[in-house]
Write a structure and sequence with these properties.
Layout lengths: L9 E7 L8 E10 L4 E5 L3 E5 L4 E7 L6 H14 L4 E5 L2 E5 L9 E4 L9 H10 L5 E5 L10 E10 L10 E3 L4 H7 L5 H4 L6 E7 L3 E9 L5 E10 L8 H15 L4 E7 L3 H9 L3 E10 H5 L4
Parallel strand pairs: 8-9, 14-15
Antiparallel strand pairs: 1-2, 1-5, 2-3, 3-4, 6-7, 7-8, 9-16, 10-15, 10-16, 11-12, 12-13, 13-14
Length: 301
């Protein structure tokens, strides 16, 4: 059976009908209400629909409410400002970011303007080649005509922000200190982690247990977004609520800084993180993925 998103998610499920039925397959769209022993989906028109897990052919998670391409573009713009790398430039509607190869987000080009087309790919490839970097494209759905499958398929999940109180066990720092970097464990320079364009950034930590990063930036439509990233819990401290307390503190910090909405970018196969954010009220907004620009242009670096 295809993997199902958490209960409460909105999905489209294609499944088999009883033998001899014509057509043999059908679809149901609605909210997942249960997954065991049968899948239960609440639809707008048919009420509750039950589907045997063994009959499921395909599952696609949908945004809870319809999302316009303009809303995807606005959110992706705010997210790019929150993780911009150490060098940025615009190329025909694409924002190009570089940071010495540290992290995919900080070393990829994203189409943020209506004018962004595939005609810009050759100069994008050249720009990254000059820096000794692969030319990765960060492609949010519906913002580019590129249909390549790509890698690192990601869910962008969002929630509304309300005023909250930070957890006293969580420390907030202006910069990642040595202890923060030790818990984070990834080899990412501080100048990459602290980079933000026209926004604020903070680093949360429960000493030796968990760390995370928050950044508030403003989308072109005026929405103040909090982006939560770099969340890491030490192996020996997992499943003790550290990530939840850390994220709740970052959400409270973002609200205090004027953010009205928050987002996370989660790899689609990271089920523990998806479940955590889902429990905190985050729901799917859109998907994105990374595609090698060289594979589209036939050029070599």
């Amino acid at each position: 059976m295809a993997s199902l998103p958490p209960v409460g998610s909105r999905v489209s499920i294609r499944y088999r009908l009883p033998a001899g039925t014509t057509p043999p397959l059908t679809d149901v769209i609605g909210e997942v209400r249960a997954v065991d022993p049968v899948i239960v989906v609440r639809t707008k028109s048919d009420g509750l629909v039950e589907v045997s897990p063994g009959d499921v052919v395909a599952v696609r998670e949908l945004s809870v409410v319809p999302v316009r391409a303009s809303a995807i573009r606005a959110l992706e713009h705010a997210a790019a400002l929150a993780w911009p790398g150490t060098e940025q430039t615009w190329q025909d509607g694409w924002l190009l970011r570089a940071a010495g190869g540290y992290t995919s987000r900080a070393n990829s080009a994203v189409p943020l303007d209506f004018s962004a087309t595939i005609a810009a790919l050759p100069p994008i490839v050249d720009w990254y080649r000059q820096r000794g970097l692969p030319a990765w494209l960060a492609l949010p759905e519906r913002l580019s005509p590129i249909r390549a499958e790509g890698v690192k398929h990601t869910r962008v999940m969002v929630t509304e922000l309300a005023a909250g109180e930070p957890d006293p066990a969580v420390t907030l720092l202006d910069r990642p200190d040595a202890a923060w970097l030790t818990t984070y464990e990834r080899d990412v320079p501080a100048q990459v982690l602290t980079a933000v364009v026209d926004g604020e950034v903070v680093f949360a930590a429960e000493p030796t247990a968990a760390v995370g990063r928050g950044a508030v930036t403003v989308a072109p439509d005026g929405t103040h977004w909090l982006g939560i990233s770099a969340v890491r819990v030490s192996d020996e401290h997992r499943r003790r609520g550290h990530a939840r307390r850390l994220c709740q503190t970052l959400l409270a910090w973002g609200a205090q800084r004027g953010a009205t909405r928050a987002y996370v970018q989660v790899l689609s196969d990271n089920e523990p993180a998806i479940l955590l954010y889902h429990s905190l009220g985050f729901r799917l907004h859109h998907h994105h993925r990374y595609v090698d620009a060289v594979s589209l242009t036939g050029r070599t670096l």
